[in-house]
Design a protein that fits this description.
Helices cover about 55% and strands about 10% of the residues. The protein has about 350 residues and is α/β, with parallel strands linked by helices. The chain has a single domain, classed as P-loop containing nucleotide triphosphate hydrolases (Rossmann fold, 3-Layer(aba) Sandwich), CATH 3.40.50.
Amino acid sequence: MSVMGRIRAAGKLLLGGEGRRGRRGPIPPITKRDISELKRFFPRDKFFIFGHARSGTTLLMRLVRLHPDVHCSYQAHFFTRRPLLKALVDTAEVEEWLTRKSNRWNRGADLSPVILRAAAEYIMEREAAALGKRIVGDKSPMSNIHGQAVLDLHLLFPEAKLIYIVRDGRDVVTSERVRNFVEESRYMSQADRRILEDLRRDVGPYLNSSRSIFTEAMIRRVAAGWATNVTETDDEGKRLFGRHYAVVRYEDLLANPLACLSRLWKFLGVSRIPKSMSVKIAGELKANPDEEWQTSRGQELAALLPKGQSGNWRRLFGLTDKRLFKAVAGDALIKWGYEASGEW
């Protein structure tokens, strides 16, 4: 570098610091060339399971990975819970580094999508490789990101497959309520804690709907989140992933697990479905580690909600609870076939 060049560089350093600070620009989508090259290092087919929290994502993960070709782990939250995978490159300073013209490794483009995808690929493939499985996925529930999670996934994995599991929103809010009580969540309000104290004294009035386990604020919040989630996720899944997008209802999975799983395994690209799968599925359905955990934490509260069943909301929803949920998310219930009309 010439003397004048050194002086100019020193001046820029003095005036601007070591690099840009603050927010970075949008992360560009990964290119087909980058995908092709990454496949040489990470050859396994990828899939992702999304679903609103308490919608059966864990059960689906446990069942889908019973197939000898398929592995699925959980809660990586690459795209579904902040800080998200993109936080690794989410500063202007890092953007400047990864786009710097003197950086010969970046081929004159932003390296961010390659770095992000390579990190996710490695995390997913190291378990699948140890197990000798050729198809690998992650299940991560999402309750706040909604359609943006699908957009972020498609930015880095446009050729991956996305499975979305949907559950009756009334069972979602019921399951979330009981779980929060069992865990004594730090997010509970004073009104929530008063209900919990009353429950521990006498659960009877809550089982016959003469008293409600819900507050109005809780039903409105979860119902609105569920309705937004099932609408945005499904819309973006269809638009961006097309034939690489599949939906399964939690209730259908319970009612006819072999048929649902056979459809999903074929969707993921398995070569065959062994006859032993029906026996393995039945055994996995009998196991309920989540129920065992909740019972160990609060046996009297666990009795409120038999785990793994559909329609539990009917035991605990009062007339006011129904009215509130219907006002916020009644149309979504009809769209997804949980009700034929608003008369329920």
